[in-house]
Amino acid sequence: MHKITVLLATALGLTSLAALSLADNALASAAPPDTAQARFELCAPGPRVTCVVDGDTFWLNGLKIRIADINTPETSQPACVAEARLGMRATHRLVELLNAGPFELEVQGRGTDRYGRALRVVTRNGRSLGAILEAEGLAELWKGRRSSWCEA
Fold first, then answer.
1. What would you report as the CA-atom Rg of the chain, rounded to the nearest whole angstrom?
2. Which residue numbers delimit the TNase-like domain (predicted)?
3. In whole angstroms, what is the distance from residue 124 CA to residue 64 CA?
4. Which residue has the higher pLDDT, 141 or 20?
5. Which residues pair with 127 in a beta bridge?
6. 152: pLDDT confidence band, cut at 50, 70 and 90?
7. In this structure, are residues 49 and 61 in contact, taking their beta carbons and an 8 Å threshold?
8. Is residue 6 pLDDT above 50, yes or no?
9. Which range is most confident: 3-7, 17-21, 80-84?
């Protein structure tokens, strides 16, 4: 969540997650992309600060970010062995992509999802890291719902 959002919400006396989400969404369209760079590793048990959860979710300086333009296979509760394998490949590739240098975090549409995660499109030099994962067969473009990664 943007620091400005929290300050605005506090000034207005908003305390619930839903109210903070509304404030964040209201500011999202006016917010310029944030530039970031950090050293990422896979998330370990315990507090998460800067790490990669899976192919489309990571933590940056204590903020949980869901990559908004893609969906990747699940790693925590995969529906089949193929999904688990592809999910791990996507997760490791996201670590590589995030560690390759500075990137931008862009709000396109909603600023947060129903779980309170920041929704961001991650780009470097104008190219979506999600699109790179999709081109490599490790993700699908987000279409409003999850697809099955298991063969029928």
1. 16
2. 48-139
3. 19
4. 141
5. 124
6. low
7. yes
8. no
9. 80-84
Tell me the two tokens of residue 89: 């490949």
Conformational region of residue 47, where left means phi above 0, alpha means psi within -120 to 50, and beta covers everything else = beta
Q: How far apart are CA 53 and CA 78, in angstroms?
A: 14
Of 132, 124, 81, 79, the C-alpha closest to 105 is 124
Tokens of 76: 């925590």
Please, what are the domains in the chain?
1-31 (no CATH), 33-141 (2.40.50.90)
Give 146's pLDDT tier (boundaries 50, 70, 90).
confident
Treating both helix axes as pointing N-terminal to C-terminal, what angle do 17-28 and 3-11 enclose, rounded to 10 degrees?
A: 120
- Report the DSSP beta bridge partners of residue 35: 104
DSSP secondary structure letters along the chain: --HHHHHHHHHTT--SHHHHHHHHHHHHTTPPPEEE-----B--SS--SSEEEETTEEEETTEEEEETTEE---SSS-SSHHHHHHHHHHHHHHHHHHHTS-EEEE--S-SB-TTSPEEEEEEETTEEHHHHHHHTTS-EE--SS----S--
pTM of the model as a whole: 0.77
